[in-house]
Amino acid sequence: MENGKWRMENGKGKNAKPGVFVLSIIHFLLSIFLLVSPVFSEESGNDTIDVKADVIEYLEQGRLLVARGHVVATYQGTRLEASEATIQVDTKIVSCKGRAVVYQKNVTYEGDDLVYDFGRESGQAGRARIKAPPVFGGGDKIVRKETGEFEIENGYLTTCDQDQPHYKITTKHITVEPGNKVIAHNAVVWAGPIPVLFVPNYTHSIQHRRPKVSAIGGHRKAWGSFLLTAWEYDLGSNIEGHFFLDERDNLGQGYGTKAVYHSAALGEGEAKVYYTQERRRDLPEGAAAEKQRYQTSLRHSWKISGKTRTFFEYNRRSDSNVAKDYFEREYEKERNPETHWDWVRHAAAGTAEVYIRKRANRFENVTERLPQLRWHLNSLSLAGSPVYFSSDTDLTSLRKKDASAKTSNDVFRSDFINKAEMPLKIGSWLSVDPYLGMRETVYSRGIAKEEALARGAFLTGINANSRLARVYNGSIPLRHVVTPQLKYEYLSSPTVGREQLINTGDVDQLARTSRLHLNLEQKWQTRQVEENGNSTVKDLARLLVNNRYDFETERGGEFAVTSADLELRPKKGIAVDADTIYDPPSKDFLQFNLDVRLEPEKGAHWVLGHRYLQNNSVQETLEFRTMLASNWNLRVYERFNVKSYRETGAKKINEFLEQEYTLVRNLHCWEMELNYNVGSGQEFWVILRLKKFDQLPFTPLQQKSYFPSPGVES
Fold first, then answer.
1. Cβ atoms of 391 and 417 closer than 8 Å
2. pLDDT tens for residues 188-198?
3. Beta bridge partners of 93
4. CB 2: neighbour CB atoms within 10 A?
5. 174-192: b or e for each residue (b if 16 or more CB lie within 10 Å)?
């Protein structure tokens, strides 16, 4: 068929014999009957192969379809294109001549003399290529298995989508599991036409966007010249991780590994180990230059059932500064990670918990809990009345360890809270919940004597909250939602003062309290219609104000600190966040932070920050990102102190704390990132990353968009 018309190949023009012409007409009618009617539609519905071509011929013997010219065969979402193909109707096997292509979901498979089985979704081809983003490959022969795997013989693998890839991995045999992983043995890595690396065993998971090998090189003041490398490994489907090999000119070599594991039966976790035989070059002559330093951690989480879960974390360090010296961003995130185990069981009646905390590092001040048993009883109606009873029980064996004094104070504490409440609904807009109760705590010993101490305190209070809304119908529909909350709490003076107790924090700090909390949340919302036609509620603005009034202080009744948080989202790409803490007694702001983000879909991005901390610092931050040219991007980060105070009390005015400049060069399938930082010293580093696998196993050295502790210098 050509341009929608049937073409007669036998007999042309007036020279055609009448008999041949009659036979051609019969063949024409038979073709229409067999092909336009259900020729190969003996299987109905989705089990039919749909074939289109310039010429289609049906051979009853062998039940074959022979198609020529612009052949397109479609079966259950899989499409095959070829110039000539023979299709076995019963077995659904297609044999192609010349070049052919198979499209299936996000995988493209093409090659010479392709044979493809639609039923088994398997086949093979010579001089073949596959496209299974982010992976591309080719070879002398490619076989597709029923499992979906591809076997490439004498071929290559890459993430570059060019016909002549900028880099590739070649070997005699490659296995590709689309969406899962690739496996190669005795592989050679090429940069263009140059071989750069031999890898005896290459297994790479493509479920995550991490490269097989990562490297960051540069120079910083404390380290000197450095090179940080990470090598990915995969131990089956349940364990994967990285080996780390680092070289720092001023400190020596460092080694480590990180493994992420998961088990359907026992949960999942992460283990990390890092070790260095530090050899410092900046120490004075005669000082011990070598020092063993290490850091280990293990985190394991296990959801035993729908109502039971457990979590374990272990952290061991050689000294308190090893994380600060080698893993700065990890140190800023969590300076003193705990070693503890937690088991929680939820039930209809309440929640049970077992908690153990143990000191793993002798240089830490830790209050150990060996163990802590908690039980919370959910509210129960008393004899069907509107009065509800709840309780909390806490049994803890405490051991307070002081690293500097090398002492330990042990005490067993039993803490009980019994509370009765009567929630009420006033009208349709106000909920009120008054309560009263008793808190009793028993200590095995006090700070001055070994006898047991029993402490009691009466507690009462009331909680009230409401939710009010009003809709404004205009060109832009708006809804204003107001949620006021009021909470009064009273605690009588404990029968035993805290000065008589071994102070382990929290419960031991209780004192007479009469306090009123006033909270007010306001939201401005609109309804937004998405591209799929569904509508969602979008918050344009949110303001939260928290206030507290203490009735009993040394100066009598007064308002305590007031905090406020503001979020504005007036338009996509525009965000304003502000928070403040105000101290009414001193009539001054203790803290104020403001962040403005202007991030349009096109054009430059701006992030502006302001930090104020009373009697500490006033700091400004700026982050700017833009495209310099078609393949170049620029990032600038500045951190500037308008005013700051030193520990000596001296004041510093107008001081640059940090400047960072980043250039990113687009190299098609790669990105090269050049970073230069001026802070405590001058630093620079280079990152070369694959676009498809851009999640580095280690974080860049600086690149802090926001300073973690306003006014506190690093």
1. yes
2. 988 888 888 88
3. 88, 117
4. 10
5. bbbbbeebbbbeebbbbee
